[in-house]
Amino acid sequence: MLKDEKAVVVFSGGQDSTTCLFWAKKTFKEVVAVTFDYNQRHKQEIECAQAIAKETGVEQYILNMDLLNQLTPNALTRNNIAIKDGENGELPSTFVPGRNLLFLSFAAVLASQVGAKHLVTGVSETDFSGYPDCRDSFVKSLNVTINLAMDQNFAIHTPLMWLDKSETWKLADELGVLELIKTRTLTCYEGIIGDGCGKCPACVLRRKGYEKYIQSKKSTH
Predict the structure, then answer these.
(1) Where is the binding site for ATP, in residues?
(2) What is the DSSP string of the chain?
(3) Which residue has the higher pLDDT, 153 or 82?
(4) pLDDT class of 85 with cuts at 50, 70, 90
(5) Residue stretches of the annotated binding site
(6) Predicted confidence band at 17 (pLDDT cuts at 50, 70, 90)?
């Protein structure tokens, strides 16, 4: 039974990972959050994650991942690179190569230290902006690799894998945290908490999903 188990949630303070944090709190007996500081564009991301973890009483580890910043100049690690969607089959400028590979690998190392067998991440193939490390096939492959590398039986959970943004809002509502996620999480590439700047690709996706969910909720009542 998962209710007796412990999980480590990869937690950035954004909409998806915060929804996953509450999903994990409902699913597992004990939850630990791990947040990665890779000198990302906005320090608010980490402050936001810290505030939510503290409020929910979840033990949080913040790991220094500066090397990721050194290796990958992109719009999330450099202020002088414009945020733009991928064109002609190219990846968006916000793609950080290897990020989920590294995050989940380090989360597994932490899990082995704190006695957890479950890893939770908010990746989604439905709204994945073309990021290859958000695909289900990648996560399943990495799960096998991590277990072989560490001689463990970790299970990686991806509660949002097949949900679009409106369904992610629906899950937040079912978990009783719709308002918290709408007002307290940081998804915006410009570093604005809550509804964000309204213009960057992350804000547009988030807002469209919210409006679609609220609309469908009204029509079913």
Answers:
(1) 11-21
(2) -GGG-EEEEE--SSHHHHHHHHHHHHHSSEEEEEEEES--S-THHHHHHHHHHHHHT-EEEEEE-HHHHHH--STTT-TTS------TTPPPTT--TTHHHHHHHHHHHHHHHHT--EEE----STT-TT-GGGSHHHHHHHHHHHHHHHT---EEE-TTTT--HHHHHHHHHHTT-HHHHHHH----TT--STT--S-SHHHHHHHHHHHHHHHHHHHH-
(3) 153
(4) low
(5) 11-21, 188, 197, 200, 203
(6) very high
pLDDT at residue 209 above 80? yes
- Residue 216, CA distances (Å) to 92, 169, 208, 211, 221 in order: 30, 11, 12, 9, 9
Instruction: Between 106 and 202, name the one with better pLDDT.
Output: 106
pLDDT surpassing 60 at residue 87: no
Instruction: Tell me how far apart the alpha carbons of residues 100 and 133 are, in angstroms, rounded to a whole number.
Output: 6
Binding residue ranges for Zn(2+): 188, 197, 200, 203
Closest to 17 (Cα-Cα) out of 181, 164, 146, 206: 181
